Amino acid sequence: MYARSAARLLSAQTRAFSTSSARQTKVAVLGAGGGIGQPLSLLLKIDPLVSSLSLYDIRGAPGVAADVSHIDTDSAVKGYTADQLDEALEGAKVIVIPAGVPRKPGMTRDDLFNTNASIVRDLAASVGRVAPEANILVISNPVNSTIPIVAKTLEKAGVFDPRRVFGVTTLDVVRAARFLGEVSGSDPKNTVVPVVGGHSGATIVPLLSQNAHGKGISGDAYEKLVYRIQFGGDEVVKAKDGAGSATLSMAYAGAKFTNALLRGLNGEKGVITPTFVKSDLFASKGVDFFSSNVELGINGVEKIYPIGPLSAEEEKLLEACLPDLKKNIDKGYAFVA
Ligand code: NAD
Ligand code: LMR
After folding, report:
1. Total-model pTM
2. pLDDT tens digit string along 106-157?
3. Domain that holds residue 72
4. Of 53, 116, 250, 303, which has fewest CB within 10 angstroms of its CB?
5. Are 77 and 189 found together in one domain?
6. Could you tell me the distance, in angstroms and rounded to a whole number, from the CA of residue 198 to the centre of ligand 1?
7. Is residue 34 domain-shared with residue 151, that is, in the same domain?
8. Catalytic residue among 152, 164, 199, 278
9. How far apart are CA 167 and CA 274, in angstroms?
10. ipTM above 0.85, yes or no
């Protein structure tokens, strides 16, 4: 009952959990026992487009699976232990990765690189071997580097398909809608703000000028709003005071993006959202991955949209984004090379 009500609530509030297509899919979560993994598994269990949920972690996934499996939706759920990664991946069409350590106060996302780079590389190598045609959604930070790591790892294995590797930047889009709603009075669910670039600090570029409520905001209010969108993650890290970073809002954002991808994979047209993918938009400046609006379709990335007209302030934000983003991408590449 709760699950049905929760699913109805989610779809009514966000348009994210659409059920417009009947086909269903096996989804795996790697890192399912963690702060994001647990609520994400819950939300995927109540997504009608997920037929089978495969929950893997180096600790705790069978417990999460047993718990989530009691929810009265149709999908099957199975948990896998540390030595069962291959079984967890078999037949998965979509693989969501929130495995890795989160920030503590005073850390940047790049400070997580030393630990998370090898976790993500090793998981990607297994995906390349067991489920080479799967769509891979990476949540683990630093996303600006973990995505190039996944791409290079798959490339080395000869199975990299740029249409199927996604950095999940949906939390930035969710925050932009929410924070703009707070200052302008607009309803966040109808407040679409494209957020382009990458996923950390100055690489996060909100395009407020492309929203009717956002384009009138200027001066100090504009600066504060942009800062809040770019550094929203810090707010949560600070408030959690050593206990981690955003988990609940991230689980929501991860489930929202997964549902969008599933709708695209199932043939729904016009599913468009920002995501960090291999992109030609700024490749001439050495930036091989970039988040902009992407149409999701049966093969994953269907079409990458240009970023559109920018205000003078946004031109400056983009200028600041590109060199940082390039550094983060090159660091990821160098790790795998
Ligand atoms: P957490 O520590 O609560 O959970 C991480 C989980 O990963 C743990 O259960 C751990 O056992 C598991 N894990 C570690 N190594 C693993 C491996 N090799 N295989 C499978 N599982 C493994 O952390 P969290 O709060 O869930 O955050 C996870 C990651 O997501 C962090 O890197 C964080 O920075 C990132 N994050 C990204 C965004 C985003 O917008 N993309 C938002 C929030 C957090
Ligand atoms: C976020 O944006 O909340 C995440 O990337 C987690 C973090 O470290 O801030």
Report:
1. 0.95
2. 999 999 999 999 999 999 999 999 999 999 999 999 999 999 999 999 999 9
3. 2-167
4. 303
5. no
6. 18
7. yes
8. 199
9. 10
10. yes
